[in-house]
Each structure stands twice: as structure tokens, then as C-alpha cells.
Amino acid sequence: MAKVDAITGWKDLEIGCAIIEPGSSRRLKTGDWRSQRPVTDRDECIKCGLCWIYCPDIVYSPTRNGYFKWNGDYCKGCGICAHECPKDAITMVMEGE
Amino acid sequence: MPKRVGIEVSLAASEAACAADVDVIAADPVTPQTHIVEHLSELVADGELDAEFMPVESEHSAMSACIGAAAAGARTFTATSAPGLALMHEIVFIAPSLRTPIVMVVANRALSGPISIWNDHSDIMAERDCGWIQTFAENGQEVFDLIIHAFRVAEDPEVLLPVIVNMDGFTLSHVIEPIEMLSASEVSEYLKPYNPQMVLDPREPITMGPVGVPEMYTEARYQAESVLNGSKKVIVKAWKEFAKLYGRSYKPIETYRTEGAEVVLMTMGSVTETAMTAVDRMREKGIEVGLMRFRLWRPFPVQEFRRAVKGIKALAVVDRAISFGAQGGPVCSKVKSALYGAPDQPQVFGFISGLGGRDITVEMFEEIVKKAIRYATKGKGPMYELIGVRER
Hints:
The structure holds two protein chains of two kinds.
Chain A: E1 36-40, H1 50-54, E2 60-62, E3 68-70, H2 80-84, E4 90-94
Antiparallel strand pairs in A: 1-4, 2-3
Chain B: E1 4-8, H1 9-19, E2 24-27, H2 35-45, E3 52-55, H3 59-71, E4 76-81, H4 82-92, H5 94-97, E5 103-108, H6 122-125, E6 133-136, H7 140-154, E7 163-168, E8 176-180, H8 184-188, H9 214-246, E9 253-256, E10 263-267, H10 271-284, E11 289-294, E12 296-298, H11 302-308, E13 314-319, H12 330-339, E14 347-352, H13 362-378, E15 385-386
Parallel strand pairs in B: 2-3, 2-4, 4-5, 5-7, 6-7, 10-11, 10-13, 13-14, 14-15
Antiparallel strand pairs in B: 1-8, 6-12, 9-11
Helix pairs in contact in B: 1-2, 1-7, 3-4, 7-9, 10-13
């Protein structure tokens, strides 16, 4: 599970609760609350990249062999990739299964 | 010795901001605006004040722009009144939590409806809990002085909070008074250039005003609350230094003829001077009455208040706003809660008067005091009462 690592007492907060370290949000994993995750069947995948294009959270990234790799740190399980896949190669499965 | 000039109090407020050498003024220039902003735009246009004047389309935008300017390290000023303050409401709460030391003059006026443009305190009482430091002026000189003081306190590195200087709409904002104006060079002795502790700068990016998740919100709010309460010592110290330099002294709670007083009137704002006349008149008749008023409304000076009421039998608190459905006025409610549990507390009787521009006369103050004396002798009075309301 991703955790906010800035938890601190009020005395240690920056003035006005400002965040003084640029880019610190990269450490925040936002995909810890999805109930479903997409699973790609690479036998069906035609490497068209629509999952990569449509994903609202840029969870997919192209790999050297042409497939698209999924990153669970940020995926919310919205299912847009599964819906858009022209070959129905992506299935949404329940987390924990 | 500074020159004493006859000047409209609103214009004096602009001159105070000018003497404080503000960098940015963002304000809605049309009604319910006063001449404060109009005159500042003139000063900027005439080259007398080197500042950015931003005439925005609403008070919501005005306060947003002020926060942005203050976050970028500018000395920032604005002014508004009643419905303008109400339109600002959302953003008013953001300024202290971002610790942006904005100074705002509020010309206190009634909130509608029925539609009213006249003076009372319902606008500012609706912003009572917004987290700003709030002071009240009784006359034009105090408006000028409190604005200079406000910048000094707001920008103190231990404070960094916005300050509202309250002045009564019309009875102060549109009245010409003799005021000792301090020049920019005289003010510069008291008010050093703003040295921001944290600025928005693309070369060193930071995030101001991020999301406060439930794990952080309480701590962030407590920081603002703790700094506001702690600001009192800076406020008092800054007033003491003001007195040393310019000869006029201010205190969180001001008293008038309270020595030996059995009953003490409590007021805020310009009606205080009418109440003083009433006190003088009643003292001549042998009635042991005094007067007390909150100069500092937030942070509420609870210790000073408890000390000030020692030995007093009864307080007659005059509110200029109704706290609807709460059976009383906001000042009286605060007075009662501040005294709860204190030893030897006086009896407190609440009166509401002077709503929507209706004058509170000397005679009305005398009536209030007479009532308070009667209730105090009986040992009980009504929860609150409206003075001067027609039954039919």
C-alpha cells in the first residue's frame, strides 16, 4: 500500500503547509485504492498502443519488444484500456484474485 | 511634528497604504467599494505610488490576486465592504492558511436584505472565524495608525498572517476628519521593507496551498490557529513601539472612565465616541458607569479582558449585528464564553442596536445603562434585547 511519507506534527510543517521540495509528488503512489486491475493477454495483443494512448494516468509504457507494460503504482482500475482494446486482449480482474 | 489635515477617512486609509509603500493593490473598483481604492488608483496613475494596481472583476478575484501577489513576496493591500466581503468569503479563509500577510480595510456595512448600504457590523461578524487578525478603529486617526500597524504585524516573521482593519462604513469612511498623516519616510522608521520567509519563484519552485488530506488538514489548521493566538504579543509590542515613535498608544482592550465603575458599557467601532459622551453625562449625574471596547477582536484578548473586568458588577454589551437564532449578538456571546469559569465574573447583559445605519444616540446609551443597572440589581435580565426596535 502506498503511504503519504510527509506525515508530521504541526510544529514541523512548513509555513502555510507549503511543499518546498519540487517534484516530491513522484514519491506518492496513487494506485492503492483500485478494486480491479487490467491483465493483457499478449497472445491476443497486436501492439496497437490504444491502451497506452487512452489511459488517463499514463500507466502503460512501451517496451522494446513492442508490447505495453502496466504500472500498478498509479492504475486506478478504471477499465478504459480494456474497453478501448480492439482485440479484447485486456481483461479486468478483481484485486486479490 | 506631522501635519494635521482635514481629509476623508477613506482617503486617509489610501494615504496610509501609500505611506506603507505597498507593492500591489488588487480590488474590485465598483460598489460596494469605498474611495480607498479609487484614491489608490489615482496615486498609482499619478506616479506618487510605485505599485501595481489590479482592478479585478469581483472581490473573489481581488482576494485571489492579493494572495498570489503576497505569495510572490509583494506588500499587498485591498479594501472592501459588506457584500464585497461576503463575495470574498471563500478566499478570505485561504489567506491565513497560506500565511500571506495581506492588509485589508473593511468599511463595515450591513449585509442585505432588505437591501442596505448602511453601517453595522454584520459583514465582519460573518467573517469572525476566518483566521485573520482583526482590529477596530473608532476614528480616522485610528484607521490611519492601525493600517501602518497592520503591515508591521502581518509581515513579522513570527506572524505572517493577514490583518483586517475595521472601520465603520459612512460614519467613518465618508466623513472628513482632522488626521495627522505620517509620511512614507516617517513610516519607514517603523515599517521596514517586507522580507518574505517563503516566496513563489520559478527558479526555486515550491507548492503553496496543496491538498490537505485528512492526515494533514488538522495539523495545518492548528498551525494557523496557534500562530494567530501567538500573534497577540507581536501586536501589543508593535503598538508599544508605535506609541514610542508617534505618541499615540493602542491596547487590545481600551477603557474609558472605568475606575470605580459598577456598570461598564462595551462597544466596538465609531459608536464608542458617542458612548463616551453618554458616559460623561451619566458620570455628571453620579452614575458610576464606564466604557470598554475591543480594539483587538481576533485573536481575542481573553486574559486582558478578564483582568479588565475585575471588580466590575455588570457589563452592558452593545452588538451591532444579530447572530441569528443564537439569542444574542456575536460580541456578547464571545464575552460570555470568555468569562465562563472566571472567578468573580460580572453579570453580562446583551443589547443589539445600530443595525443597518440606524444611529445609536447618547440617550440610547443612557437607556442601555439604566436597564443594565436595573437587571444587575435584580440579578437577572433578558437573554438579549434590541434597543430602539418599534413594536408596531
